[in-house]
Design goal:
The chain is α+β, with helices and mostly antiparallel strands and about 500 residues long. About 45% of the residues lie in helices and about 15% in strands.
């Protein structure tokens, strides 16, 4: 009886120990010399560390924890920060026993003793290794061939390899339909129109091909499944869609963002990651006009509270909203904010008022209000210019990029005048070292409108988003913004396009 009680106590202890570990991943790698290993998961374009093993003995690595791992594709990363191999985790695969007997490439002999579907995934990985080696062996066969023959040979081989991989992937997905790993690998599959109709000119109908591809691009993708964001495939597919499939127009992009966001669960990991991705992508986009998308996202999701809890710091959300508020008046087709500036010729008058000798903002404010009527007469306002086109330029004498661009701009300006283009340049010096500024203007013969903020009236950073120089805007006769943040080399092309579109 005592033995039975003892046995029950032991069994209870074992079960309790198992219950304490919600995940338990054991990995045995032959001849692995690492003393440290990381368990990481993919999250969009990053790898995030979720666990660390510091007690590796004879290649035996153990990760365990009391909280279940989130669904996704995980990686074993060695102490040299190299990914040894990937595996997946879902609700049924939290306890895994993985091994590899290979001493050179662990992927070649991966095995999981307690999960058939994990083994199927390892077979998938091994298949890619075989195709990779096949490509490399074919590459060796091109030695001695001409460039054309080599290209033709490798193109044929690459096409065959791609077809093999595509067929293998489709077979794997079909075989494991309904599982997380099948849904994850579906992100890699392109949905092309097979039977392409003919257009009226007798050629393949490219519009039908595009329409089908766009319509079916997200087939089988469930945006309610957070685990898909924890794969190495989701971010690339998302980026390809918005960079190469969606029509390059801010309004079209905004519609597609809403369509995707509406499919994700509010407040879910997928929802938060998507929104953070979109707001970052379009706030920093180098495509002119795409800041409109950023402002749209902020207005719809951040100002309404739908972006709650995306960032741990409320200040980040406030900064994003403030950034949108700065950019909103500067969107394409908006009327450029007026700029009351001091012409270079009025400098002496401003000096007599005492602005250059003032030490504090309080002193400057006092001087401003004491001389307000005279200052108002001295102002040259951007909106007062009469011209079909206005180049609004912000620059600094000491800026190296400005030193390269300003001479090119003055040359272009004179060329445009010779071509009878009705254009003016409103050239804004962004600093306060007047003597240096005037010297440069005289030496470089900058015979356009030269102004500066001699009375400290404008906050250029907030008003025109000036955080570096040079910055060039093209405005039309009504001072609507037609182009912005462009190089001098782009001005002529844009003006030509504007002339054609009038």
């Amino acid at each position: 009886m005592k033995k039975l009680i003892f046995l029950l106590v032991v069994l209870f202890s074992i079960n309790s120990a198992k219950a304490q570990n919600a995940y338990d991943i054991k990995i045995n790698l032959k001849n692995c010399k690492d003393t440290l290993a990381y368990l990481t998961f993919y999250q969009f374009d990053k790898n995030m560390i979720v666990d660390t093993c510091t007690t590796i003995k004879n290649g035996k690595i153990v990760f365990n924890g009391k909280k279940k791992l989130s669904k996704g594709i995980y990686s074993l990363v060695g102490q040299g920060k190299i990914i040894y191999f990937d595996f997946f985790v879902d609700d049924e695969n939290q306890n895994l026993d993985i091994s590899s007997e290979s001493v050179t490439n662990y992927k070649e002999m991966l095995q999981c003793s307690n999960s058939k579907i994990q083994n199927d995934f390892f077979d998938y990985i091994k298949y890619f290794e075989v195709q990779r080696r096949d490509f490399e062996s074919n590459l060796l066969k091109t030695k001695g061939l001409s460039k054309k023959d080599s290209t033709d040979f490798m193109s044929t081989k690459q096409k065959a390899i791609n077809e093999n991989i595509e067929n293998f992937e489709k077979s794997f997905i079909l075989k494991n339909k309904g599982t997380f790993i099948s849904d994850a690998l579906n992100l890699k599959i392109e949905k092309y129109l097979k039977d392409i109709p003919k257009a009226s000119n007798g050629r393949p109908d490219s519009i039908a091909v595009y329409d089908y591809y766009k319509k079916h691009y997200w087939d089988g993708v469930d945006f309610k499944e957070d685990g898909l964001a924890r794969t190495p495939f989701f971010h690339g597919r998302l980026s390809r869609y918005f960079d190469g499939v969606v029509i390059r127009n801010p309004d079209s992009v905004a519609v597609e963002i809403d369509r995707i966001m509406n499919q994700a669960v509010d407040g879910s990991i997928m929802y938060k990651l998507l929104l953070a991705h979109f707001v970052n992508k379009y706030e920093t986009s180098k495509i002119m006009g795409y800041d409109k998308v950023f402002v749209y996202i902020v207005d719809k999701y951040f100002k309404t509270g739908k972006a709650k809890d995306i960032y741990n710091d409320d200040n980040i959300v406030n900064n994003i909203i403030n950034r949108a508020n700065i950019l909103r008046p500067l969107l394409l087709e908006a009327v450029a904010p007026d700029l009351p500036m001091i012409p270079i010729e009025s400098h002496d008058k401003i000096v007599k008022m005492g602005f250059e000798s003032a030490k504090t903002s309080e002193e400057m404010t006092k001087i401003f209000y004491a001389n307000a009527p005279e200052i108002e007469k001295s102002f040259l306002r951007l909106h007062s210019l009469k011209a079909k086109y206005t180049l609004l330029v912000f620059w600094d004498v000491d800026c190296s990029h400005c030193q390269a661009e300003i001479p090119k701009l003055i040359e272009l300006y004179h060329q445009l005048l010779k071509e009878k283009i009705d254009i003016k340049v409103f050239s804004v010096y962004t600093q306060q070292e007047f003597d240096k500024y005037k010297k440069y203007v005289v030496e470089k013969k900058l015979d356009w409108i030269n102004v500066y903020d001699g009375v400290h009236y404008n906050n250029l950073k907030d008003k025109y988003d000036i955080y570096s120089t040079p910055v060039i805007y093209i405005l039309d006769k009504d001072k609507k913004i037609k182009a912005k943040r462009i190089d001098v080399d782009q001005i002529k092309t844009i003006l030509t396009a504007l002339e054609k579109g009038k």
